Amino acid sequence: MKYILVTGGVISGIGKGIIASSIGTILKSCGLRVTAIKIDPYINIDAGTFSPYEHGEVFVLNDGGEVDLDLGNYERFLDINLYKDNNITTGKIYQHVINKERHGDYLGKTVQVVPHITDAVQEWVMNQAKVPVDDDRQEPQICVIEASLGGTIGDIEGMPFVEAFRQFQFKAKRENFCNIHVSLVPQPNATGEQKTKPTQNSVRALRGLGLSPDLIVCRSAKPIEMAVKEKISMFCHVEPEQVIFIHDVSSTYRVPILLEEQGIIKYFKQRLNLPIDDQPSDLLMKWKKMACRYERLLKVCSIALVGKYTKLSDCYASVFKALEHSALAINYKLDLMYIDSTELERSTEAENSVKYHQAWHKLCKADGILVPGGFGIRGTEGKLQAISWARSKKKPFLGVCLGMQLAVVEFARNCLNWKDANSTEFDPDTKNPVVIDMPEHNPGDMGGTMRLGKRRTVFKTENSVLRKLYGDEAFVEERHRHRYEVNPELTHCFEEKGLKFVGHDTEGNRMEIIELENHPYFVGVQFHPEFSSRPMKPSPPYLGLLLAATGTISAYLQRGCKLSP
């Protein structure tokens, strides 16, 4: 097993996740089996209870793990399926060690950060690195470890992990362990000069903690000059070919190509004694073609994303990627317009009419409307307004999780005339509870108490748009994350009026997919299809939305769900 540790310096949010994913993609393109581990130093057990404004979206895995969004990058780039133990947190490690101490496994010894916490980190990494993540179920050959050690090297919360890997480099042996340090080369507007001192200081701090970088990846706004590369090489004690530049690019698909162009395959082959050719395979050539195609797109499709966490794009990272994958598949450039759902509400019109009318202007000019998942009552009335507009004006619409539930609420209020119809999440005493909490929902603890992970959805009918988009399969398996569900006792009322529940769980009790009759594309799904979308395998519900928004869904279905050349 070969281990590649990716650390960060100067600032957090520098792009370690994309760099780690891109390195994995390159090595996979060379025919190697690659897995990935993300280390987060917070004390939370997992990401499940975070507000999206803390660390971005909560990504859900097949096994129900609620993890950091970077694991979504690994899955999309490498086309693998990870597990909850691929995301290590301080909380998980300490809980593991404390449980062992309570069990008496330490035989009366004093339990300390060194060696017990550091040993637990190393054992966890070695055990998880062996878990198969590809469809062929073979043990990985390379493990890429992204260590968000408090964002940057030197933060107090990441120190046990730094010490663990200082020890681990000797346990794994030099030929099996490589450290990549991602740093920032700022360029102040006042001088226009690219500064190397932050990188020098970051590498010095890393060396002082016992880790020496084998590669230094320098992030910058613009391409870095050769003189800067030579300076970093000289003052950071590495060869010039060990300094890699990654400047801001038009799309993340370009990053693996930039790395490959700077000789990273040859370096890894020599440094880790890898049994690979120097030349990239067909997989990387496909990435190159995809990146070039992305940059040449001319036709634009606009989608309005109506949500409550619109101030930070990372809150809907997987949704954005799923839309982007689908747009790229049909040769359109995505114009994603984020609309704060509260700004569509009547209360906003009274408080700030300019914001209200701007939000509605965005919604009206969009080619399609998406209402993603979420929790809490804030902004729900605005989402209901957007859904009502999509239904009545025959605008292509996709509702995901809460978006599907609210589509049911909107239909009940405006088509069934149940004016007080609601979800028990928002009104526990409603006379028409069209969305109810699930029997297994635990109202006590919040963490890990939802219906989580990959579940099977069975199609009730062959006459379903979504079934055709999924390749006319009898069932699909997608990832879930919800506490509430459509009330199964009321579904017949909706079906009589044209809102069809075309998919349900294996028992037939839980409603999973809705489709509205006599509408170009009005679809709701209880699951989160965005978590399974891949750059070269777009998610069918999102692809359907983009096809409908560009007016090409009928032609696509007539061709047997084949994209035009």
3D architecture notes:
Pathway: Pyrimidine metabolism; CTP biosynthesis via de novo pathway; CTP from UDP: step 2/2. By secondary structure, the protein is of the alpha/beta class. It folds into two domains: 2-43 and 131-292, Rossmann fold (3-Layer(aba) Sandwich); 298-559, Rossmann fold (3-Layer(aba) Sandwich), CATH 3.40.50. The chain is 37% helix and 20% strand. The chain has 20 helices and 21 strands. Helix 1 (16-29) crosses helix 9 (255-261), helix 4 packs across helix 5 and helix 12 crosses helix 19. The radius of gyration is 25 Å and the shape is globular.
Q: How much helix is in the residues?
A: 25-40%
Number of strands: 21
**CATH-derived architecture of the largest domain:** 3-Layer(aba) Sandwich
Overall 3D geometry? globular
Measure the end-to-end span: 41 Å
What's the number of structural domains? 2
> Helices and strands: which structural class?
alpha/beta
The low-pLDDT segments are none
Supply the key terms:
565 residues, alpha/beta, nine-stranded mixed beta sheet, seven-stranded parallel beta sheet, 20% strand, globular, CTP synthase activity, CTP_synthase_N
Give the arrangement of secondary structure elements.
Elements: E1 2-8, H1 16-29, E2 34-40, H2 52-55, E3 59-60, E4 66-67, H3 70-78, E5 87-89, H4 90-103, H5 113-129, E6 142-147, H6 159-172, E7 177-184, H7 197-208, E8 215-220, H8 226-235, E9 243-247, H9 255-261, H10 264-271, H11 282-296, E10 300-307, H12 317-329, E11 333-340, H13 346-351, H14 353-365, E12 368-371, H15 380-392, E13 397-400, H16 402-414, E14 422-423, E15 433-437, E16 451-459, H17 465-469, E17 475-482, E18 484-486, H18 491-496, E19 499-504, E20 511-516, E21 522-525, H19 540-549, H20 553-558
Helix pairs in contact: 1-3, 1-9, 4-5, 5-6, 12-19, 15-16
